[in-house]
Amino acid sequence: MADFKIVISDPDSKKVKQMKIKAKADESIQSVEGEKEGKNVPLGKINSKTKQALGVENFVSLSVIRKEGDKIVNVKVHLLVQVDENIPDNEIHVNKTVAEKLGGDELVVTAYRTKAFQLSLDQSKLNLFGIKINDEITLDISGTSLKLKVTGGSDNTGFPMRPDVSGPAKRRILLSDKPGFIPEEDGERRRKTVRGDTISNEIVQINAVILR
Question: Cα(174)–Cα(180) distance, rounded to whole angstroms?
Answer without folding.
Answer: 10
